[in-house]
Amino acid sequence: MSLLDKIIRFDKELMVQLNGLGTESWDQFWILATNQLSWIPLYLVFFYLIFKSLGWKKGLALVVLTAVLITFSDQFTVFLKDSFERLRPNRDPSVNTMIRILKNNSSFSFVSGHATTSMAVSLLMFLTLRKSFPYTLLFFIWPIIFAYSRIYIGVHFPMDVLCGALLGAGIGYLFYRLSVSMFAYMDRRTTQP
């Protein structure tokens, strides 16, 4: 058995264990947590903090950059899913009879777009706002809950989520560096006669 086969086997066993922690009394919470619209209050907090910290001009630039980040992250994860073609747990016959399935997704699994994008946005917000506001470390509660919800409802393996979070951290950092350059350019334009 190759190393990759061992990793995939461990991933499936871990999926069964983590998904098996679910109970009917928590199902509605995790279904709500996995819905992107449920996080609108957090997005509004991000908007508020962005404009309070950066002002309207830089704030609007960061909002546009964040929209580009989300689009890039979404499309890149779709590309990866179509390249790897890993079946989702709810479609994988080796585990789908051993897990609780609360949602049926038919697209491929690797990597989790929810984990990637939520981590990317959270890291961008954390790095941008950490000097202006205390408790920005709490932003990372979102990707943790969001990512685990995908395992709980049976549509992602743990490695999909972990690799998605790592990819998201890389994307978030890249876009943070872009924002620093963008703000420096905006500052130079403002100070020039």
Written overview of the protein:
The chain has one domain (about 40-190). Helix content is about 70%, strand content about 0%. With about 190 residues, it is mostly helical. The mean pLDDT is about 95. The radius of gyration is 19 Å and the shape is elongated. Helix 3 packs across helix 4 (about 115-130) and helix 4 packs parallel to helix 6. It starts with a helix and ends with a helix.
What topology does this entry show?
Elements lengths: L2 H17 L4 H11 L5 H45 L28 H17 L11 H12 L5 H34 L2
Work out the count of structural domains. 1
Average per-residue pLDDT, rounded, comes to: 93
Number of contiguous helices: 6
Q: How far do the termini sit from each other?
A: 68 Å
The general outline is elongated
Provide the succession of SSEs: HHHHHH
- How many beta-strand elements? 0
Largest sheet: none
Rg is 19 Å
Low-confidence stretches: none
Helix share bin: over 70%
What tags apply to this protein structure?
193 residues; mainly alpha; elongated; 0% strand
Summary, kept brief:
With 193 residues, this protein is mainly α.
